[in-house]
Task: inverse folding
């Protein structure tokens, strides 16, 4: 273990893996931010903390059981000339769930969900946490399988995951608050979830969509939305001065 401290390649692997885990964790962070947006403020904070904590636990457990995890990529049956593994089936299930959840949230946002007294209906805390845990499993498996081979030492991989999760936890509340303050960004985030869901389904049936394409589309759309928000602030400021 002490040898790793003075191993330059281990430090390079740690940096690379940490950046990769943060990038791959964007999907999870967007999902958690959207899912907790309809919870009361304190409950949303607890749900985000619990969700990211569970994601960290799943990733560490998967790293400890690497031999079992690698076995998930072995085909269990063949359909339409494609060998489906347990990983493929998990990605398919996760992709379909994201499509359903994003579509449901978009419908709720457009139609509006209110009770008989006219108050906005909040999501149930337990149901929200259960959904976060379910999608954590999908993103954890995909993330760790992607990371395998980039580092030779499991302690380095675990440390990279821990650092990435700490950074994501610190970023989760500002991102969630931003989405809450700007309703249009929530629709954009839900569109991202639709895109991620489609990519997971495509990956599950053997058609891999490079993540770089998806993240570029997300970054471009987020940039356009940022310009719209800034332009809206300027217009409101001009009206206030007038």
Result:
């Amino acid at each position: 273990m002490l040898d790793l401290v003075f191993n330059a390649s281990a430090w390079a692997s740690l940096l690379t893996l940490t950046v990769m885990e943060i990038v791959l964790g964007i999907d999870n962070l967007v999902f958690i931010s959207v899912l907790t947006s309809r919870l009361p403020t304190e409950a949303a904070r607890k749900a985000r903390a619990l969700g990211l904590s569970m994601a960290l636990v799943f990733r560490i457990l998967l790293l400890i059981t690497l031999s079992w995890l690698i076995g998930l990529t072995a085909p269990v049956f063949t359909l339409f000339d494609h060998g489906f593994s347990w990983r493929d089936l998990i990605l398919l299930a996760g992709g379909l769930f994201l499509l359903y959840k994003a579509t449901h949230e978009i419908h709720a946002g457009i139609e509006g969900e209110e009770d008989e007294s006219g108050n906005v209906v909040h999501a149930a805390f337990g149901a929200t946490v259960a959904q976060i845990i379910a999608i954590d499993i999908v993103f954890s498996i995909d993330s760790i399988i992607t990371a395998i081979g980039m580092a030779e030492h499991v302690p380095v991989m675990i440390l990279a995951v821990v650092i990435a999760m700490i950074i994501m936890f610190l970023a989760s509340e500002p991102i969630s608050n931003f989405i809450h303050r700007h309703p249009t960004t929530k629709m954009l985030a839900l569109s991202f979830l639709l895109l991620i869901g489609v990519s997971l389904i495509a990956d599950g049936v053997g058609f891999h969509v490079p993540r770089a394409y998806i993240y570029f589309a997300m970054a471009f759309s987020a940039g356009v939305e940022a310009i719209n928000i800034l332009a809206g602030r300027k217009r409101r400021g001009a009206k206030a001065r007038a």
In short: Residues 106 and 187 are 7 Å apart (CA to CA). The chain has a mean pLDDT of 76. The chain has nine helices and two strands.
